[in-house]
Write a structure and sequence with these properties.
The chain is α/β, with parallel strands linked by helices. It is built from 5 helices and 4 strands, in the order E-H-E-H-E-H-E-H-H.
């Protein structure tokens, strides 16, 4: 298995965030705690949306919550790069901004996108890296994920977690 993505580049991790520092903190901690030195293989970016509407200038979130998200990222992922929006974009445009950055600005062939509520298991990035390597020869694959069976009932999830 190769640590770099296709073409030898490092696969970027892009975290999308808005106004939920209480959700974002455990995500960032789980990212920083990845096993197998996985974080060394990935540049990390936080795409932070803005609290003020780009259309009206009205607040859509508490500015202190957005500031707290940026502060958490700087403390937990100090080697990462925050990319704050100049005005509120909303989810769809913030995702599009993130995709353009990954695939146009960075010219990455593969990128890992995380939302602010996805707490990662310790081997999450290692599994993504392995899936990336397995999918690389197949040009028809444009998307893959490894977050499990999210529709499984809690009892089934609990049984599987211990096995």
């Amino acid at each position: 298995m190769t640590a770099a993505g296709p073409g030898g580049d490092l696969t970027p991790i892009l975290v999308l965030s808005f106004n939920r520092p209480d959700y974002l903190e455990p995500v960032l901690r789980s990212l920083a705690a990845q096993a197998d030195r996985a974080m060394e293989r990935h540049p990390v970016f936080l795409f932070q949306d803005h609290p003020l509407s780009r259309l009206t200038g009205a607040p859509l979130a508490r500015p202190e919550d957005v500031a707290a998200c940026l502060d958490l990222f700087a403390r937990i992922i100090p080697w990462g790069t925050a990319v704050p929006a100049g005005a509120n974009l909303g989810v769809a445009l913030n995702v599009r901004r993130t995709e353009r950055f990954a695939f146009e600005t960075l010219d990455a062939e593969v990128a890992y996108f995380l939302e602010d509520d996805l707490i990662l298991s310790p081997l999450y990035l290692s599994v993504l890296d392995r899936l990336r390597d397995l999918c690389a020869p197949e040009p028809r694959i444009g998307y893959f994920a490894c977050y499990g069976e999210h529709r499984a009932d809690p009892a089934l999830q609990a049984r599987r977690a211990s096995g």
